[in-house]
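quick one, two chains, predict together pls
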Amino acid sequence: MWIRKEKRAAPQTGRARLILLGAILVLGIITATGMGYMRISAGDVIRIIFSGLSGNHGLIAGINKVFPYVVWDVRLPRVLTAAVVGAGLSLAGVVFQGILLNPLADPYTLGISAGAAFGASIALLLDIGSLGIYSVPLFAFAGAVATLFAVMALSASGGTISSNNLILSGIIVAAILSAGISFIKYVADEQVSIIIFWLMGSFGSKTWVDVFITFSFVFIGFIICIFFARDLNVMSLGDRSASSLGINPNRTRLTLLVTASMITAVCVSVSGIIGFVGLIIPHLMRFMVGSDSRRLVPASALAGAILLLSADTVTRAVLPTEIPIGVLTALIGGPFFCYIFKKRQTAVQSG
Amino acid sequence: MDKDLIFEMENLSFHYGRTRAVDNLALTLSSGCFWGLLGPNGCGKSTLLDLMARCKTPQAGLIKYRGKEMRHYGGKELAKEIALVPQDFYVNFPFTVEEILLMGRHPYIPRFASPSSDDLQIVDQVMEVLKIAKFRHNYITELSGGEKQRVIFARALAQDTPVVLLDEATSNMDIRHTLDILDIVAGDVETGGKTVIAALHNLNLAATYCDKLVFMKSGRVVSRGDRDQVLTEETLYEVFGIESRVYFDEYVGSRQVAFRRRRP
C-alpha cells in the first residue's frame, strides 16, 4: 500500500510543513479575495487589507474607488468565514476521530451537523429574537450536544462504544433529524425561505459580525484542543492505558466532545451543513505531519481553512453558476469516505 | 502495618449492572514478588487489575496502595507508581513505535514541554531490551499482532514504575517472545525490586515464573500464597473444575501441571 511506504514525518519536517500550510493559507486568502466578477490584483488586495486594518486611507490612493468596498465589505468577510468554518470543521473532525478512536467519524457522519441544523431551524422557525444574533448559534449548540449524547447512548453497549455502531447510530439519528427539519419546513409559513436558504449552506452575504463570532468560538475550541493534544494522543491507546498514564479518560472525552460539538454548532449556524471536510482533512494531514495531535491539530485547522476557502472560491468565482458549497464538498468527500471505508475493511480482513 | 505490603483490599466490590465481577474480595499482596493471578474466564481478574490501576473505582470496599487509600493519590503521582499492560492493544491511528513509547513518559513530561534527554534515553533502553529498535520509525498499524503487543508492553516499561500489572500481556506472542518478556519482568523483580502482578491463562508459565499465586473464582479469592503451597490438584479442581496432575519438574525447576484427554 502506497501510504505505508511513505516516510514518517519527523518533528522538524512537521513544523516546516505547518509553516508551509500557513503560508499557503495567507496566499490563498489574498488570491481568493482578488478573484471574482471584478479581478483585483494581489498588490491592491494587500494594500486595501492593510489600509482597513490600520485605518490609513493614504494606502488606497489611486485604486479604483469601488475596490475597497468590494474587498473589505463583500469578499473578505466571505473568504474569511469560509476559511474559519473549514478550520473549525476539520478541528471537530480531528477531535471526533481521536476521541472515538474511529477514522470514519466526523461532525457529518456522526449526525452532529444535522443536530446543529435541527436546533438552528427551530430557532429560525420560532424567530427567537430575545438572544439577538446568538440565538441561532445557541440553539445549534444545544442541538449538537443533544445529538452527540443521543448517538453515544444509542451506540453504547456494555460500557464500550464500537466504531460501526457509532456510525450506524449517527446515520439513524441524522435520518430522524432530517425528517424533523423537513417537518419544520412544512409548518413554517413565512420563515420557510429563510430556513431553506440557510440549510443549503452558503458563504454568500457574510458580514464581519459572522467572521468575529465564528472566529472567536473556533479559536477558543482550537486552544482547548491544543491544551489537550497530548492527552488526545494517549487516549488512542485505549481507556485502560490512558487511565494508567494518569489521564481521566471520561473527563477528557467529555471536555473534548463538547468542545468539538460547540465548534460544529457555530460552523453550522453560520454556513449550513457542509459535510466531509472534517473527514478528509485529518486523514490527509495524518500522512503529512504524522498522528501526533500536537502537529495534527494545527495542521488540520490550516488545511481545512485552505480546502473550504478554495472550494468556496471555485463555486463563487470559477463556476458559471454558484452551486451550494455543501453539495460540492459532498461530491468530493463522499467518494473519499467510500475509499477509506473499503481500505479499512481490507485491512481488517488481512490483519 | 507491614511495610512490605503493597496492595491491601478489603470488602472490595465492583459490578457491571447485576454481574458481580469482583465480589466482596479481600486480598493483600506483598511487594518485590512476581504474583500470578489465575482463574477461569470471567472470574474478575481483569477487573481486579483495573481496580489496582485505578482504571475503575470500586463501588464498595477499600483498596490501599502502600498504606494509603488509592483515591487519595493524584493522577500523575499514581502513574509514576503503577503501569498497566492491557490485553487489548488496538491502536487505530498510524503512530510510530517511538511515539507510542514516548506516551509511556507522559506522566513525567509537563504539558507543553518536549521530552527530556532522560525520557529519550529510557525509551532507547527499553527498545534495546525488547529488540524493537528496528521498528522505531514504523507505524504501529503496520506491525503484526505479536509485535504490537511487544510495543504496548514496551510502552508500560518506559513508564518506569515500581509496580507493573500485566493483563494477559503475552496472549498474542509466540513462545519465544513470551519467554523474553517474562524473563525481563522476572529479572526486574529479582534484581530491581519491582512488583509484578500478572493475570495469566497458562498455568505452567505461571508456575515457572511466579513465586506467589492468587487463585480467583467468581470475583473472590480462593487461595493465595507461595506457589508451592497453593498450586495443588485440589485447588485446580476447585477453581477450574478439572482433573490434573501437579508434579515437580526437574528441568523447569518448579511445580508443573499436566492434563490428559478426558474422552478417548
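The longest strand of chain B covers residues 5-16.
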